[in-house]
Amino acid sequence: MKTKILFGLLVVFLCLILPGFYNALKIVPYKLRAKGITQSIRIALVTDLHSCDYGKGMRDLLDAIDAQNPDLILIGGDFFDDELPDDNTISFLKGISGRYPSYYVTGNHEYRSGAEGFVRKMAVLKEWGVVRLSGEMRTVSIKGARLKIAGVDDPSAWLDKVDNLEQTVGDFLKQLAQVAAQPRDGLYSILLTHRPEFLEIYSQSHFDLVLAGHTHGGIWRIPGIINGFYANGLYKNGSYSPNHGLFPALSGGLYEQGGTKMIVSRGLARESTRIPRFYNRPELVIIELVPE
C-alpha cells in the first residue's frame, strides 16, 4: 500500500509539477479596437529580458518576433540587467536595428547598475537606433495612421535624490502628469511604462492603452486558480518586488479601468531569476490594433 501511495505521488509530481517549470518562449496575442486606423497594426511588446539567453545571436527571440511581422516594437524596461553582462541585450538590439521602429522605457534594473552603468546602457540604445521615451510623447506614423506613444521612466530614476523608492513616487507622478497633459489630437494613445501597479492613476490620465511589465520571474501561477503568487517574497522577508503583495493582482494579462486598457507582460527573464518560473512561461506579447 505504501509503495502504491509513493508511486501515485510520483505520478502526480511528474504530471502536474514538472510541466510547471517548462519555460520555453510563449506567444501571447491580444486584439484591440482602435480609433483612427483603417488597417490592422501589430505591436510587439517585449519586457524584462534581463539580458537572458535566447540562442546564438538571440535568434530564438528574434525569429519569434519576425514570424509575427510586427509594425512596431515597444520595450518595457529591464531589458538590461545589473548583474548579467549586456551581451545578449546588445545582440537583440542589433538584431532589430533598422528593421522595426523601436521605443524603450527604463525599468528599475537599469538604475541599479549605477550612474556609469546606466549611461553606458543608454548609449547602447542610441547606438542601435532605439528611441528612449523619458517623460515624452511621440507621434508615430504606421500604415497611413498616426498613433501617440508616450513613455515614463521607472520611479527608480529618482533614487539618487531620496533615501528609498517610496519617496520617488511623487516625482514619477509629476512626470506622468506632464506627459499626460501633452496634446493627443484625438489620436489613439499608448502609454509605455515599466510598472503596472499604478493602473488607477494611469486610467485617470485617459490613455487608450497602457503597456507594462515588471512582474515576471518569481511569480508562480496555478492556471485557473491563482494568477500570481510572488514566490520571491518567501525569502525576501516581505519585500515584494512587484510592489503589490504576495498575491499581485496585476501580474499578467489584460485589465481595464475607467475606459483605459492595460496589458501586463510576464516578461522574458529566465536564468536571471533566483526562483524559477512555475506555470509562468516567458512571453512575447503581440497586440493587434484593428479598426473600430
Rounded to an integer in angstroms, the radius of gyration calculated over CA atoms is 19 Å
CATH topology: Purple Acid Phosphatase, chain A, domain 2
* Count of discrete structural domains: 1
Instruction: Give a short account of the largest sheet.
Output: 6 strands, mixed
> Which class best fits the helix and strand makeup?
alpha/beta
Q: Low-confidence segments, ≥5 residues, pLDDT <50? A: 233-242
Strand content: 25-35%
CATH architecture: 4-Layer Sandwich
Order of helices and strands: HEEHEHEHHEEEHEHEEEEEE
The CATH superfamily title: Metallo-dependent phosphatases
Helix content: 25-40%
What's the CATH C level? Alpha Beta
| End-to-end CA span | 63 Å
Principal-axis shape: globular
Mean pLDDT rating: 86
